[in-house]
Specification:
250 residues, nine-stranded mixed sheet, 15 strands, 36% strand
Amino acid sequence: MMAQPGLEIHRTQSAVIGAIQSLIDSADESLTIAVPKSSLPVFAPQLSAAIERDTLVLLLIHGDASAPTPAYEDIATAVRTIESGITPLLVTADIQRGLTGHSRMLTDSVAAYQATEFDNENLAHDEFTMFLGTHWLMGTERYVASVCEFPRTFSAFQFAVLMAALALRAGTPITARARVVSTTDRTETTVSGPVINVRQSIVYPASSKNPAERSLTIETDAGPVTVGGTGATKEAYECREITLDRADDG
């Protein structure tokens, strides 16, 4: 039932599973999900479909280490595991909507817990930040996708940051062309040039101690500029869309 506009309380395991499956299906750009390892098979088809449609999937699994390990490359862009059994149930889709609750709702069908599903951008942003800033950092990196084929255009800035970090980690020089908005006067423009720095903590090695920081530094003809994602304040520009390419392809 609806507790208030934009919030829905789920008190049964079947309702929570259905809500998570629907959230995964709804994600076009990015998905963060923290679930017990033993429950992964329930969501594998939806996660696989998300990967097929080029959605960024950050998967954090915890709990029963003896549970079967799926083929991570089929269901996630990056995977971390955590031994702690106290990780909550956390899901965000496109940083617009999500779900949170006690993880035992997926492992104990008669547990007296509940989960809250929300369709609220502010709540989703807070949960996305908590996911990356707390639980993701506590996990151990188990899998990261290979660097994508270039050129590639991204509307999800955090996906571009991840791929830029992987490219630079592999020693592959890349360039960027980004449609941006100035964070000072909100004018729109385009910036382009070699990517000379990535600030992120999604994959190893982390280049920022601030888990909320995701930015690229691009060497333009006028000098280096910093580009951040939606809501950027510290960077010179807020990204709307960005295309990455190999530097030697230009």
